[in-house]
UniProtKB/TrEMBL annotation:
Belongs to the binding-protein-dependent transport system permease family. It comes from Novosphingobium hassiacum. The keyword Ligase does not apply. The keyword Kinase does not apply. SUPFAM superfamilies: MetI-like (SSF161098). It is a multi-pass membrane protein. The chain crosses the membrane at residues 17-36, 48-68, 80-102, 125-150, 200-222, 242-264. This is Peptide/nickel transport system permease protein. PANTHER family: OLIGOPEPTIDE TRANSPORT SYSTEM PERMEASE PROTEIN APPC, PEPTIDE ABC TRANSPORTER PERMEASE PROTEIN.
Length: 273
């Protein structure tokens, strides 16, 4: 605990701002639906695109639903789904990278060429094709988004793993007869974790933006579920009025991604120093 507090104190102002934003959205994702003043799907106000008031802090949307309640509920899907997707992408990509680094040459060539092929396809186009082919249920959407970002993580993880495999302590472990699984999980992986943290944060930001983009196009979460991108899409008719129903979720997406970027940048600079 003391070391964590010491690390937080060493962060620059931008890093502390990023940390506050990240912790805020994690808390909202965890408890948001439980503190929402109204059920997210209830028609609480007869006036559509109403402004802020004591009863409706962020106004109402195009159907008269409470924007704050829907925002608190939508944040859980955006943060939770993105966190699960980035975990899957990193586990698969890093696992393949370790196989390529410690396995036979042909395994490295096969995996590298396959990932090069996938990464040559723009991520949004790749995700759109998969969503159109297999649908956008919660589970499928999570898997599709995760698969989209496996190649990028694989390239970063492989470059780290290949460099570590050539070091003396790994050669010593190989000389004393350790198997490839031991080399990958005990000798190489622990020394990759810290450099991978920055990539994990960036993948999370990319996934949040991709999920929001898919939802804005109507290919993300389907009603009655809604993430932050869905909230922007369904209230676009209020843009001319400057309705909070469209401004609030857009600001939420921006603050989440900016917060993660600020924290990553500060943490990376701290390690560099």
């Amino acid at each position: 605990m003391t070391s964590i507090l010491r690390a937080v104190r060493r962060l620059p102002i931008s890093g502390k701002v990023g940390l506050v934003l990240v912790l805020f959205w994690i808390a909202i994702a965890a408890i948001g639906p439980f503190i929402a003043p109204y059920p997210p799907g209830s028609f609480a106000n007869e006036e559509v695109f109403a402004g802020s008031s004591g009863q409706f802090w962020l106004g109402s949307d195009f159907l008269g639903r409470d924007v704050l309640s829907r925002l608190l509920s939508g944040a859980r899907f955006t943060v939770g789904l993105s966190a699960v997707a980035v975990t899957i992408a990193v586990c698969i990509g890093t696992g393949f990278a370790l196989m390529a680094a410690v396995g036979p040459r042909w395994v490295d060539e096969l995996l590298s060429r396959a990932m090069d092929t996938l990464i040559s396809i723009p991520s949004k186009i790749f995700a759109l094709v998969l969503v159109a082919a297999f649908g956008s249920s919660l589970v499928l959407l999570t898997l599709i988004i995760a698969i989209t970002y496996v190649p990028g993580n694989f390239r970063i993880a492989r470059s780290l793993a290949v460099g570590l495999v050539r070091l003396d302590y790994v050669e010593v472990a190989r000389a004393r007869g350790e198997g490839r699984l031991h080399l990958a999980l005990v000798e190489v992986l622990p020394n990759m974790i810290k450099p991978l943290f920055a990539d994990i944060g960036l993948r999370f930001v990319f996934i949040v933006l991709l999920l929001s983009g898919l939802s804005f196009l109507g290919l993300g979460l389907q009603p009655p579920d809604a993430d932050l991108g869905s909230l922007v899409r369904e209230n676009t008719s209020g843009l001319a009025e400057g309705a909070l129903a469209i401004i609030a979720p857009a600001v939420a997406i921006a603050s989440l991604t900016v917060g993660v970027n600020l924290l990553i940048d500060a943490a990376t600079q701290g390690k560099a120093r």
